[in-house]
């Protein structure tokens, strides 16, 4: 493909991504896979160049552009060498018309800029758009740190036990240790949240928003085999991904429950006031994961954020009813917005005097608003807020 044809392909892929962000469709990564599957003529160099153009535009614009063409035209002012690709020849995009609208603005949408936690300064904001590292967790029930270091001599030990960073682009799927469940890909921040939940050695655990089970599996690896972990979610597709993962990790103490949206208690009533730990990794804006999923900025609107915080409140109330006296609730969001983090903790504690904050001693994170804040710049993790609460 010519450079101009690559630019046109990037415009077309961005059009798909913009539409999906507007309509709550597939992720940018999944769209890219489908896009290239339909264009098998694009070689590896073509795919790499197109991806670079697409993700440069996604990372640059905080507000969702009207079209892929506008998104890339906005880059021309900052990268003048791109102008010559808009020539209308060689399967490239049409020439730039005088006065043609282009994308503009900051990396963070104006309406979100003042909603971040007070500890998030300019270096922190810049780090939100860095490339995410590759973190892995060693499953101590299936392997040892020494075996992992032998397989990946370049692995760098991180702040938490059994956690490592591997070089970007490391291939894991073809390694026996990965296939046998000895390691799991998991951001260090997610590992820290699981460690906070496991601190009191709970015997009965409910992972209320388990998704595909990343934190469920981490808890299983950290807790005794006789503990029982229930992974629950309303998304059948995501929940079904736990089964092969738990078999691979030999995690026999995990069971799953599919919940009905808005009717979760119908399936959880038997756990009322019974759980030693309820983990709520709540749906959120994903502001802490922009370095992995920068198009999330194009999906979130003030109305969607309002609906998300309302759902978070309902989930905390629901989870609190399932914790027994003396048990704990860990509430977490991969967000750095106060509305989803500290505000939620304050609201809950103010209306529930029978609960108190518990301090968890971890080697990463900063105390913040009755909880802990993790961020890319300070901790090298995705951005998270989490709190550990105890029922009196």
How helical, in percent, are the residues? 25-40%
CATH homology superfamily of the largest domain: Vaccinia Virus protein VP39
Mean pLDDT, to the nearest integer, reads 96
The helix/strand order is HHHHHHEHEEHEHEHEHHEHEHHEHEEEHE
Q: How many beta-strand elements? A: 13
Using the alpha-carbon principal axes, give the shape. globular
CATH topology-level name of the largest domain:
Rossmann fold
Number of domains: 3
Q: Give a quick account of the main beta sheet: strands, pairing sense, barrel closure.
A: 9 strands, mixed
Give the CATH class of the largest domain: Alpha Beta
**How far apart lie the N and C ends?**
65 Å
Structural class from helices and strands? alpha/beta
> Nearest-angstrom radius of gyration?
22 Å
Task: Give the helix tally.
Answer: 17
The name of the CATH architecture of the largest domain is 3-Layer(aba) Sandwich
Strand content: 15-25%
Low-confidence stretches: none
What does this structure look like?
The protein has three domains: 3-105; 134-185, 2-Layer Sandwich (Alpha-Beta Plaits); 188-391, Vaccinia Virus protein VP39 (Rossmann fold, 3-Layer(aba) Sandwich), CATH 3.40.50.150. β5 (204-207), α10 and β6 form a beta-alpha-beta unit. It has 17 helices and 13 strands. The protein has 392 residues and is an alpha/beta fold. α1 packs across α2, α3 packs across α4 and α9 (188-198) crosses α10. Strands 5, 6, 7, 8, 9, 10, 11, 12 and 13 form a nine-stranded mixed beta sheet that branches. The longest helix has 21 residues, at 3-23.
């Amino acid at each position: 493909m010519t450079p101009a044809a690559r630019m046109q392909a990037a415009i077309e892929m961005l059009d798909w991504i913009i539409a999906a962000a507007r309509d709550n469709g597939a992720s940018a990564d999944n769209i890219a896979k489908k896009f290239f599957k339909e264009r098998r003529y694009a070689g590896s160099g073509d795919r790499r160049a197109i991806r670079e153009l697409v993700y440069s535009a996604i990372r640059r614009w905080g507000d969702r552009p009207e079209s892929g063409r506008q998104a890339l035209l906005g880059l021309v002012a900052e990268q003048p060498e791109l102008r010559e690709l808009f020539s209308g020849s060689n399967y490239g995009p049409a020439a730039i018309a005088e006065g043609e609208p282009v994308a503009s603005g900051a990396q963070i949408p104006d309406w979100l800029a003042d909603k971040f936690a007070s500890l998030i300064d300019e270096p922190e904001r810049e780090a939100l758009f860095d490339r995410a590292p590759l973190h892995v967790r060693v499953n101590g029930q299936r392997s040892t740190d020494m075996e992992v270091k032998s397989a990946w001599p370049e692995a760098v030990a991180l702040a938490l036990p059994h956690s490592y960073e591997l070089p970007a682009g490391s291939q894991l799927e073809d390694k026996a240790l990965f296939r046998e469940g000895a390691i799991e890909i998991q951001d260090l921040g997610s590992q820290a949240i699981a460690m906070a939940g496991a601190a009191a050695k709970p015997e009965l655990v409910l992972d209320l928003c388990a998704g595909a089970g990343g934190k469920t599996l981490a808890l299983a690896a950290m807790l005794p085999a006789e503990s029982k972990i229930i992974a629950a979610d309303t998304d059948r597709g995501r929940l079904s991904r736990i089964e092969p993962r738990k078999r691979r990790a030999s995690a026999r103490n995990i069971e799953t429950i599919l919940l009905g949206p808005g009717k979760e208690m119908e399936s959880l009533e038997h756990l009322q006031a019974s759980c030693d730990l309820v983990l709520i990794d709540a749906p959120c804006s994903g502001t802490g994961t922009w370095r992995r999923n920068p198009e999330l900025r194009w999906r979130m609107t003030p109305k969607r954020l309002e609906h998300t915080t309302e759902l978070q409140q309902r989930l905390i109330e629901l989870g609190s009813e399932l914790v027994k006296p003396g048990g704990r609730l860990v509430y977490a969001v991969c967000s750095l917005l106060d509305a989803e983090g500290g505000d939620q903790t304050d609201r809950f504690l103010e209306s529930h005097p029978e609960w108190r904050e518990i301090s968890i001693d971890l080697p990463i994170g900063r105390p913040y608003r009755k909880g802990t804040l993790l961020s890319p710049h300070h901790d090298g993790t995705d951005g998270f807020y989490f709190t550990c609460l105890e029922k009196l």
